[in-house]
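pasting for the record
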Amino acid sequence: MHVPTVVTPALVVSSPFRPRRTVWFRATFTLSALRDLFPWRCDNSPSGAASWKGLFNCQALPPVPGLRNTTADGLSRDRALVEEHAVSESERGCSGYGTFPRGGVCYSGAFLVESLHARVVTQGAHHGYVNIKAVGPKHGQCFGAGYSQHGQYISVNAGKCGLSGMSYTIRYCPDQDVINLQITAPLAGNVMMRRSGCSGVLLEESQAIAEPVPPSPVAVQPPSWMQHGVSTAVACSGEKALPSDSELCYQGTLLVETLSVRVLEHTENGGTVNMKAVGPQHGECKGAVFHQSGSNLTINDAKGCGLDGAEYKVQYCSDQDQVVVRFVKPMQVDVALARAKCEASLA
């Protein structure tokens, strides 16, 4: 069978020292291959058979439905995966895989009025020892706490180090050289501990352990690809109205700050509340008007209620029957207010 070929001028070379000359390239295609790659009906022939004469008189055919659906589904799936990966990487700000630098490095970070310090005393390929100290309401310290590393995730028994009563996930981010502490309970927050000096509050040299040995195994959070990412946001779902109980109060704690809310009256679209904050940001207000749209609660004027100077969003999560205050500034943290007994001071 004779296979038609197309010969096209591809490049014209001109030089002051040599005569101008044209370089030709020869490409060989079969008509059936072209027709499979590009679904055209050419030369207006009823059968749609391709011919060289009709290559310049073609119109596109609609794609085969099965092929179109498969391609579209594949592109949508790939796009979703890329977007999910990009979002998760953006949210985490934590990338790379590797161990801590050697040489007794230290990291420090702050969470509200709590400051955290850590010194990696010794480290092996996947385990080592660390000294940890917390200064603030959740104060505590420990020396020579054994840790193990699985990918980015660090597993350490830090209950006596100032993190008792808290649920958290620890990751080491080699590309950023930071420790990412993600707190999930009793409140949600994200603490970035960055490289710092090892003097002062941290950790005497005499506490170092000469050789790392495998620490006792403790629970470790599964990698993000197994648990669809670790979220620092308090769970919130459901858009029903607030319950119609005669006494309806919610209370939550943010370290040394206690927030209390009493719903006085409400409809599906809003109502009035009494609010009180006890702690550094103390305040109280009565009869504050709020509006409800979906799960979002908008308080018209919360001045003096203990939230002055903060940017926040309030939601009622009917599935969990809790009120969530999502702070944006001066820090990003979520506080869950659970159902509580109504105090006399909120009447």
